[in-house]
Amino acid sequence: MTTQPAGQPYEYHRRTLVEPDWTRFPGWRDVTESQWQSAQWQRVNCVKNVKQLRAVMGELLDESFYTDLETDQRRLATMSMLIPPQMLNTMVPNQAPTTETFYADPIRRYMLPVATDRHLDWPSHPHATRDSLHEHDMWVAEGLTHRYPTKVLAELLSTCPQYCGHCTRMDLVGNSTPTVDKLKLTLKPVDRYDAHLAYLKAHPGVRDVVVSGGDVANVPWKQLEAYLMGLLSVPTVRDIRLATKALMGLPQHWLQPDVVEGLHRVAITAQRRGVNLAVHTHVNHVNSLTPLVARAAQTLLEVGVRDVRNQGVLMRGVNATTADLLDLCFGLQGEAGILPYYFYMCDMIPNAEHWRVPVWHAQQLQHDLMGYLPGYATPRIVCDVPFVGKRWVHMIAEYDREHGISYWTKNYRTSIEQHDDEALSKLYAYYDPIDTLPESGQDWWRKQEAAA
Using one digit for the tens of pLDDT, what is the confidence trace for 113-124? Predict the structure, then answer.
């Protein structure tokens, strides 16, 4: 008797990148290739509301979907709607969408959430907060978060070319929604930037600056170039990372001649001064990768950016399976020239429980990724623990699986803990989504809520 080989848990098949046919959408039937490749056309034709989505979709979707979407926007959404055509075009990429296929699409699930996606019994964890990572608490100047000893996060602005439903900075980024009245940056950009540079010059222990927002693709290029050249004038700054989801959501921006030429000037200056300049983007599913995205990434590398890396977010219904993550990583590394770097567990913000995964699930995914990708392109799955920072998911000190509480330690003080003698010795808690717990654990949380 002969037996068949058992096969591998994951089988690799090369998937070349394809730009989906945007004319399958009734509202874009007459859009030309030159229009599609225009950053200005993409920005003007972003979908910002249900009326505009209807205009693109025509009769493809049932009325029930729009009712579901309107309910979410009115009652639950923490982010307003803003989707570039490039990104909408990667939803149901191989055919004209139907209501069923649009509901099931992984990119739709995080870019265009609807009320029935959410877990209405536990839409938010009891410990969820608007600024779950306490970045605003750690501002040392407006928009400058000093959490790690040698690194700062510079939020240059509070807008993006696209708004993701799971945004960790939902307290600041984007327009206010009926659910969330957003914070506002109050200084003029030039004053904000000057305050950042003054802090860096006064704190030579900071060597690494993540330039973000919002999304740096929304900063007028001359302003961004001036800011970056200012950073390069600080001799103690050795790493600069530009954070832009627009590399995937609006690659046309990064292919504009003035942006390409300006970034080349910045990259050459960085090389001459021995500073590592990288671009970090945010791709969550392989369907988001198209030839335009690959061309934009390659252009960044050609003008002298040292690395283009991806920081995705692990989300149920989007990418929280081994096959989804490996498909994405092979597409990033092998087809688009983007290095898989991190997958963050979705943060504990309001109305995000349906996306979040428990720590044990993230640990299993990290285990299952190993051995398929080159070592340098095997991403780390990390938990961004409040008051701690990024920790690999296997670095827990204790784990109460029944109640979904993991405990973590850290080895440095944040900027608000300089006089806290216990900061390095205590345990910090993180919480699994309640619906993933055993019934006894869910009952325990119900009792905690009732007693609160």
Answer: 999 999 989 999
